[in-house]
């Protein structure tokens, strides 16, 4: 279960002066379960099958990459799937391309109010769901739990530990950066760029790691989650044209933009070897 579609390629970004920058293209790891989602779901699905569950249930917003990937994974590996979607008003609207694809793949979509959605992590709410769906293996929003971190730790290889000084990635729920931190070598620095406003992610990551070789930047999110402007879109277009590097504006575009700014500001010492983890989020069904 969860065989990689192909070896993960590295892409060099040139003409950056004294620093070296490589991009690890996790977006190419699998045709439909791409990026960090492949690694976050891997051990959760193995555990679900081991425990005899026949359904997978998780949570997300209208444009959730996690829900999209979960629908593909469930269909591919023989599970039924249930998506608890934030925003009960969406049930009276036409499905956007991502939710439409999830539905076509067999995912049962349940739209709930934003107030109820905020209870998604509480024991009472989870118990209600488990009673309603006794055959469902429940995965947290974004897929981040101990098994996800076990999977995302596999993103870093011995080659990565030996050949890079700084590891960078976008941060949503914290599961991917925590896996990278846990797998990093003591001399490496792990830097995350948050897609959300606020510094609460630091506390979340500290629950999962005892290491201190990391930092999360959350002061340049372009206004908050899923918000962006023409400046970011122009930057992404430039990266596509100059390096054939595809980015999206929710996670990877913001993260790469902030890393680019640090490089231009000479934040890193000469000869620093930087590895940017491209966490995916690119798919033909997205309207973003």
TrEMBL record:
Q: Which InterPro entries match?
A: ACCD_DCysDesulf, TrpB-like_PALP, TrpB-like_PALP_sf
N6-(pyridoxal phosphate)lysine: modified positions: 37
Where in the sequence is the active site? 64
Tell me the SUPFAM superfamilies matching this sequence.
Answer: Tryptophan synthase beta subunit-like PLP-dependent enzymes (SSF53686)
Q: Where are the transmembrane segments?
A: none
Q: Any idea which UniProt keywords this protein has?
A: Pyridoxal phosphate
- State the needed cofactors, names only: pyridoxal 5'-phosphate
Recorded GO MF terms: D-cysteine desulfhydrase activity
* Positions of the Tryptophan synthase beta chain-like PALP domain: 18-280
Give one Pfam hit by family name: PALP
Q: Which family does it belong to?
A: Belongs to the ACC deaminase/D-cysteine desulfhydrase family.
What is the designated name of this protein?
A: D-cysteine desulfhydrase
């Amino acid at each position: 279960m969860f065989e990689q579609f192909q070896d993960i390629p590295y892409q060099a970004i040139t003409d950056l002066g004294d620093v070296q920058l490589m991009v690890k293209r996790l977006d190419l790891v699998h045709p439909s379960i791409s990026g960090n989602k492949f690694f976050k779901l891997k051990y959760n699905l193995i555990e679900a099958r081991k425990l005899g569950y026949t359904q997978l249930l998780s949570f997300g917003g209208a444009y959730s990459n996690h829900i999209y990937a979960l629908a593909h994974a469930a269909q591919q590996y023989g599970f039924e799937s249930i998506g608890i979607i934030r925003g009960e008003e969406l049930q009276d609207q036409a499905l956007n391309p991502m939710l439409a694809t999830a539905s076509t793949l067999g995912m049962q979509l349940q739209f709930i109010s934003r107030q109820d959605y905020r209870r998604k992590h509480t024991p009472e709410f989870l118990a209600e769901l488990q009673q309603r769906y006794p055959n469902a293996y429940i995965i947290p929003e974004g897929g981040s739990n101990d098994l996800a971190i076990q999977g995302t730790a596999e993103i870093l290889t011995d080659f990565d530990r030996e050949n890079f000084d700084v590891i960078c990635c976008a941060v949503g729920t914290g599961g991917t950066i925590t896996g990278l931190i846990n797998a990093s070598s003591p001399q490496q620095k792990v830097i995350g760029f948050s897609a959300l406003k606020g510094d609460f992610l630091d506390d979340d990551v500290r629950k999962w790691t005892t290491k201190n070789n990391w930092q999360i930047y959350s002061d340049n999110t372009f206004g908050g989650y899923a918000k962006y402007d023409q400046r970011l879109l122009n930057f992404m277009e430039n990266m596509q044209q100059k390096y054939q590097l595809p980015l999206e504006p929710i996670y990877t575009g913001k993260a790469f933009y902030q890393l680019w700014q640090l490089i231009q500001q000479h934040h890193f010492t000469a000869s620093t070897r930087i590895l940017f983890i491209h966490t995916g989020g690119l798919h033909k069904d997205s309207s973003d």
